[in-house]
Fold this protein.
Amino acid sequence: MRGLGSRRAFVIVVGAMAILTVTAIAFARFIPDEYPGPQGDGTAITPVGQLVTPAGSQMKLEERPYGMAPSPDGAHLLVSNAGVDTQSVMLVDVPGQEIVDEIEYPAPESSTLGVAFSPDGSHAYVSAGPNNKIRAYAVDASNLTELEPVELETKDAMAVGDKRLEGWSETLCRRRDRQCLADSRSQKW
């Protein structure tokens, strides 16, 4: 009798292990084996799962590098990273493929999509989204020096108290050698 109980327990344990093994194998196909970013073979996977083969080389940046602008001479790239907790602005040395300076903005401060250099490359500007300003920087070969921001007035009467640009998408550009701000609602410059 005792031997039968041990044998039954053994069969139940082996059966349960077999079921778990089959289940794990079945669900393993749903676990991604590739993650967004460079794959090590010259390809990359975008955040939406597309496999791409970029021309040129790649380098790792911070979380969500949504805004980018090359300097007029092509030597630097200004990048705004729209991370969840901390956003930042980076100055990248293009020929050296290295980040030479970075300024971080912990929440609720921000840096968003709009990024631009002045025509001579000595200054840079980054939209601060809901912070209702455009960040300004002096730029040299290896430094970003933050200057006084350009404060913006809200166009939404309901947002005057908290000074937010609800519904606006700030985009910096160079148009006739002047900085400009695009209003996505009216599509006016």
About this structure: Residues 2-28 form the longest helix (27 residues). The chain has a mean pLDDT of 76. The radius of gyration is 26 Å.
